[in-house]
Amino acid sequence: MKHVLILGALALALGACAQVGAMSERFGLGQRAPEAEGPIDPFVTGDAGEEATLAPETAAPPPPTGARTAEALDTTTAEQRAAATAAPAAPTKALGKTVVSLGSPTEPGLWLKTPLVSEESQGRVTNPATGRSSLVTLIPLDGPATAGSRMSLAAMRLIEASLTDLTEVEVALEG
């Protein structure tokens, strides 16, 4: 009887693994670029091709290999952070509100991937809860304007948004 239970549990576990693999494949989880090395990251969600060329004001070098803390992953300089949080020099044009979640923490710089824009441009995000704002590169993201957005770790830290919760932000074009 004990062997039957063990075999049943093993069969159930293997079946669950197969379903997880099928779901990962269906939703693009655990993908790796063909040229990438190392283990597959289960949190990669198929954003390949959404790479943007950030302006010097919002660009940053990639984090060091093995970085695991927000401090180590945020490679923006103190000067960039000060410039990004300074009041805008020119008037801004409001685009709307969006709910943001943390984007890839290993993708450096100050950026917001959002369906509120159709082309890459400079913008500003404001966290109404804190009043804090940051200059960002706005990167188009497929989906309806009501869909959520993904924000860089550095930008989320500047506007004092929770890294684990969803935060509603105001988005504007700058300049």
TrEMBL record:
PROSITE patterns: PROKAR_LIPOPROTEIN (PS51257)
Domain of life: Bacteria
Keywords assigned by UniProt, alphabetized: Signal
Low complexity bias locations: 66-90
Signal peptide span: 1-18
Listed name of the protein: D-galactarate dehydratase
Region listing for Disordered, in residue ranges: 54-90
